[in-house]
Please model this.
Amino acid sequence: MSNGSSITHCLLLPFPDMQELQLWHFWLFVGISLPELLGNGLTITSTACNQDLHTPMYIFLFNLSLLDLGCIFTAVPRSMANSLWDTRAISYTACAAQIFFFLFFILTEFSLLTVLSHDCYVAICKPLLYGTILGSRACVHKAAAAWGIGFLPALLHTTNVFSLPLCQGNAVEQFFCEIPQILKVSCSHSYLREVGLLVVDTCLACGCSVLVVRSYVQILRAVLRIPSEQGCHKAFSTRLPHLAMLSLLVSTSAFAYLKPLSISSPPLDLVLSVLYSVVPPHPRPPLYPNVGSQDGPTNDCITSRRGVSGPPVIICC
Model:
């Protein structure tokens, strides 16, 4: 194939010839997707229907649940259908749509996780200013900005990638379409512009990561001053999964998108794609363990003191 305009479909990662292994692949993804659908569906329904949960923390949680569903259902259903129908084909338009929506959801989620770290920093380190700095309206605006931040780069990357001429066929060695696999089959002299865009995005992601680490350093210092052992445990148990998920998302996606093509291999690419597209949504319950409870967000608050004579500190994150 000399040009992308002559391609009508792409070929995803081939499945084993044995029908038993194809069914095993299908049921594996069912087992991954079903808890995700039920868990995030419950979160979305509870947050939308319960007025007591219309607070800054749960506004972010509502948006993160939507993004989790978007990420996993952009990548997984097509692979499940192909395993049942014993085919590898995906239309060129559907491939472009997969790349756009996956980037849109994953970049928006990263932006929201960055905002969430600042939300937790304000809640723990500046609790008396929490309602002023992070009111419900401000959080809605920040969530909307995060969706916009995710949309523009996704559109730019998708337009740029699918303007590249493809010189090495149409086989995408992955269970869903993504940028590194398209670059592998594009002409070697034409993808440097896209690599440059990926480097810029990675630098921005690293900048966001620095802000997250800075927030967590301040949070750690504040939490260690809490005299209540229960308060410390609560703060660590809800924040560490957030930090671990963000670290997993950034490290695996950055390595997958920026690693040299010379060290690329189908098994490595498959493991990396699963780690940043399927695994990150699942640590969500430990972040907010009391979603859907009748007591609302007050269940996630810890009242403690910075010192014996200091004012009470209310931790809500």
